[in-house]
Amino acid sequence: ALGRGGVYKDEGSLYSRMSYFYQLAGRYEEAMRYIQRAIDYYTELGRKQSASTDGSYFPITRNTDGGLSAASESLLDNVIHAYGNLTALYGILGLCDKALEANAVALRFAREANDNFLLDLYRMRAECFREAGQPDSCFVCLDSALAVIGRQPQQRKYLTIIALQRTGILLDAYPDSAAHYIRATQAYLADS
Fold this sequence. Notes:
The protein has helices at 11-24, 28-49, 70-92, 96-112, 118-131, 135-151, 158-173, 179-190. It is mainly α.
């Protein structure tokens, strides 16, 4: 409908969803096209909302209590999702450098959004480094994710997931270690 001149309240969200569905279907070229359209949409929306002249396309306005305004929070959440989806897509395609670039942009916005999405973004970043064969960088990212959990106690459920992720990275980096025992433990924890 949009292609024929229809209007949708949040085109960026629609593009992002379309990208995700194409990604699930293995149609990565279309997925890439739609996620880029989502990013372009949010960039343009940020330009329109920006009253500043500093070149910032994603204006951040805060309430008197220091929290993000509803408009800023909504825009940041959508931008973070779009760049997170772009990170995942580049990861699937094995483009680690591009995935890390997209993830860095998402992290920058997530830090502005008071830790929203940081945990997932750090975990995604760790996986990008894992694919690139850089285990030390993986552990730095997982440590950053653990720091987020320290600030957000409601996220404690991810401690086991991060432990499993760390174990997988150790297995990849040091395959001649006590791999049999670690894999057995990993399988056991996966069910908990």
